[in-house]
Amino acid sequence: MNYITLDKTSAVPIYKQLKTSIQSAILSGKLKPLDFLPKEEEVCSLCNINRQVVRKAYAELIEEGLVARKKGGSPFVYRAMHLIVPLTSLPLIDEIDDYTVKFERRILVIEKIKGSESETFHFFDEMFRISMVFMHMHVPVYRQEIYLDAQQPRELQIHHFYTTNFKDLLEQDADMAIDKINNFAYQSELTKLDAGLLLLPVGSPAMNVESHVIDLNGKRIAVIESVYPGDYFHFTHEESYGE
Question: What CATH number is given for 87-240 in this structure?
Fold first, then answer.
């Protein structure tokens, strides 16, 4: 904690001095992404300050997006947790597993719903919804929801959702040939739900991508909705797989 400097004779509130010290350490690289901040009691003991002072400093760092905290865990540096991915491959982003980042997948819910029950999307009269969060080193990176037409018979091994690219899962498990994927992206802000899942402030910039999966007969068989935090450009892209 040699990066913390406090002057108790200064008119600047102690919590602001503590926040500035940590902020400077993060921006200078002394504290790196995923480094844990010292525990509140350690700062209190070393600096002889009140615990509420430390909590206020940490809370403002979290609110500004430099620091994140998982429920029940210690706060850690969240700055620069950015992934650079090829835009043309956004719906297949998990393919970058092979050469850059290893993702863990946490399935949030699997359910069968009617289109009228969906708050946002009404792609099919009846559909399966699979909602999951992709994690890197236990830190949430982006959220994805898959909508499958429940009227089309298919066999999907649920445990494969943890390990298999969705395109491969449809083709291998369900024996369904994909002709193309049409992608539509737009800039948005994180909702309260997504902000909570991704450990970011509500209203942070994000990109939403709708990926419509089309079979060889030109029928839409699935839709993937992905939410990636960060600033991106609006784009539309079509990815073809058929001969």
Answer: 3.40.1410.10
Inform me whether the pLDDT recorded for 231 exceeds 70: no
Was domain 14-77 assigned CATH 1.10.10.10?
yes
Closest Cα to residue 78, out of 12, 26, 20? 26
Helix axes 40-47, 51-63, angle to 10 degrees: 130
Question: Same fold for the domain at 14-77 and the one at 87-240?
Answer: no
Q: pLDDT digits over 63-106, tens only?
A: 877 888 776 677 888 754 444 333 333 434 444 444 445 677 88
What is the crossing angle of helices 51-63 and 14-28, to 10°?
50
Contact (Cβ atoms closer than 8 angstroms) between residue 143 and residue 177:
no
Predicted TM-score of the model (pTM): 0.55
Where are the domains positioned within the chain?
A: 14-77, 87-240
